[in-house]
Amino acid sequence: MNASDGVRPPVRTLVYDLENAPYPVNPVVANMRTIHDRISLEIMRGCVQSCRFCQAGYEKRPQRFRSAEKVIQLVKETYRNTGIHEVGLTSLSSSDHPGLLKILDGLRPWAKKNRVSLSVPSLRVSEQVVELPKRIADGRVGSITLAPEVSTPLGMCCRVGEACTQLSASDSSPR
Ligand code: SF4
């Protein structure tokens, strides 16, 4: 497409500063039960794992984070404004957030006291994942969702381009 066609080429809009990006801490609260009735907070945007089959891994770069302090502040503020008792800490691959354990350690006593459930979906299997179950087990019903992508160990991981760690189920059980 040329500028001479009279149609401007699309320009990508990108939020570089996720830390200070607006987040709706005062969302509309439904007066009936709805699905996905939870505080959904994006802790990271983008992923640099380069899995060959994954479009988002290439399209959504660069990788950007919200700091642990910011995540904790936004979660508590949104809870205070809404009373919603479920919190989902989302991203393309949350185990790549360098402060994930710090976030969960910071939220854990508060979640236990207020009976808030914490969930961490979309986790690439990594060393950090081993520590997660005991950090979310204190609230109401917490969950983590692993996305191993392949069932065979390292050989297939290399083929699809994903960096993964071999873990057994007993490695990640709460202690
Ligand atoms: S880890 Fe997940 S989000 Fe990242 S590139 Fe691989 S499949 Fe995509």
Task: Explain what this protein looks like in three dimensions.
It contains 5 helices and 6 strands. The protein has a single domain (35-172), classed as Transcription Regulator spoIIAA. Helix 2 packs parallel to helix 3 (100-114). The chain has helices at 55-59, 68-82, 100-114, 132-136, 154-160; strands spanning 39-42, 44-45, 64-65, 86-90, 117-123, 143-146. Residues 47, 49-51, 54, 56-57, 92-93, 124, 149, 162 line the site of iron/sulfur cluster.
Helix count equals: 5
Q: Low-confidence parts lasting 5 or more residues at pLDDT below 50?
A: 168-175
The CATH C-level name is Alpha Beta
Bound molecules: iron/sulfur cluster
β-sheet strand percentage: 5-15%
CATH architecture designation:
2-Layer Sandwich
Shape: globular
Helix content: 25-40%
Short description:
The protein contains five helices and six strands, in the order ββαβαβαβαβα.
